[in-house]
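Protocol step 4 of 5: obtain the predicted structure for the target chain.
Materials: sequence only (see below). No template structures provided, no constraints applied. The aim of this step is simply to have a reference model before the mutagenesis design in step 5. Sequence pasted as it appears in the construct record:
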Amino acid sequence: MLEATLLDAAKVEPTVLDAAVLDAAALDATAGAAPRSACPPARRPALSPSGFAPGHRAAPAVVPGRRSPERRRATRRSTFYEGLGRPLYPVIKSESVDPVRNPYAPGAGQRPPELAGRDRELQQFEVVLERVARGRPERSMVLTGLRGVGKTVLLNTFKSMAMQRLWGTGKIEARPDQSIRRPVSAALHMAVRELAPRHRAPERIEEFLGVLKAFAMRDPAAAKGTSHWSPGIDVPAARGRADSGDLEIDLTELFVDAASVSTDLGVGIALFIDEMQDVQAPDISALCAACHELSQSGGPLIVVGAGLPHLPSVLSASKSYSERLFRYARIDRLDREAADHALLAPAEREDVTFTQEALDALYEAADGYPYFVQAYGKVAWDVAPRSPITADDVKMAAPEAEEELAVGFFGSRYERATPAERDYMHAMASIGDEPVATAEVAETLGRKPSSLSPARDSLIKKGLIYSAERGLIAFTVPHFSKFLRAQPL
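Step 4 output (structure tokens):
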């Protein structure tokens, strides 16, 4: 494309170099110099009587009104490129939809170029940070929603906001087969390391690190000798603090001590937990108990979680008071205005726009889900030959976008299911897109509900479905039922 652009530029103005030379000659005449064609060759000046060796070339004599050769060459170069830029600019400008400049970013947890439609959640977290730093009681936040709505992106944004306020921060991703002792230890270690350079009492930091090491070494896997893991803390483990072996007691003591360290600096510590619904039941109970103790003491440590829609029921099943510990924020698909803004704002920064019909088609295809907005927007940009991007461009891009989603977003999850689990999901999809009753799924398959419990529980553990409420189940991925109906049985 660049070669074609340069050829087009040459056709627009084929004598740019000649014009540049003429311009330089005109400048010479204006300065009182002879025309360039009449300039005599440079003469060797006479040797100085001060002892220069024969053959030495002295600097050219400066003639009044005449510019030096270096200045004349610089004038030719600048005039040539300035003239060349004039025809090139409109040619390059017309090819404004360039795949290299594509701003859209569909990816797991990848921040979009424009975080649209989340102002309310950002403002709420600003309030949480400010109140906690001032020692005022405030609930932590829990984000819930389907996959692809931007929970992880928002969680990472919250983390950046806390870091900008000089808080200590740490983040973990929960796993259903792992205790939270080690991940929490690593996250709090990182948070305190961020605070340590500004702390005036190094011995306070070392004291906390000793408690942290004692907490980490009580991990059941380490106790059984099945792992050679070490927390990487170069201080002796403390005794008598956060080392009882009871996670609820130990985690509470650890959180209280961590909050005390941050209080010395007038800031707080924020622990971010992604996939919070995968925290094991005993661990989630201990986590709620520790947060409850902090809310009573006013310690500046908050736990911010993100998970699937059934996370509130998971928390309430562990502790009856959990609904009073957290501020729940349901993260859903974007409304029409926010979805359009997510597409238009980054495009306009690249001097590209969309027709209204294209925006209509994109919203219908993406249904407002942020991941889909980015996926369809990216392919539509790549397909469009010029700005504005039209509805025809979107129509041409849709099959490619759907194919990419089928392989990466839907297919990767579908492949994790066993044949029996796939039959269960196909039965769900055949009933409809809304949450379905487990009894209805059993009836569709001609089986007893109790015989399908293993498949259902395994799908929940794999994060493919969730229990919307008692007796009802739903897919964790938007449009997954539509994808399944298109798959051969």
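Step 4 remarks: The first strand starts at residue 140 and ends at 144. The chain has four domains: 1-35+65-95, 119-330, 335-413, 416-485.
Proceed to step 5.
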